[in-house]
Model the fold of this input.
Amino acid sequence: MARGRVPADVVGQLTSIRQRVLEVLPHGTDLPGGSQDIYMLQRTASDYLPTTVRMYLALPPAYATTEVVQDGKTSLQVLRDQLTLLDQQVAEIGDAVRRRDSDRLLAQGRFLEERFGRGSPELTIPKPPPK
Done:
């Protein structure tokens, strides 16, 4: 990774994003086909995160940490902002996947309740319709 070239807090951000992606990515098949969430997750893992880090590491270390490049921020501060944005996006996707899983569990509970119910333990036979 980028150890030694970035501060420990940035390594922590990278680790957090990586962990979130690894937790959620296996559930990508549970998302609907053409899902924006799965697309964003895959692109974050394969492009957005590596590209962000690569672009930062291409800068000379002294320049990246001292020279103001945008809105009073150094490249290191811009990197932190970008990583925070990516981390938040991956966390939101993870929340959506977990909500979907929870909804499925709740739906299964409703099905079982309807199927086996808590009502009378006796089997009831519906009355035939009047002729």
Notes: The chain has a mean pLDDT of 86. The first helix runs from residue 8 to 24.
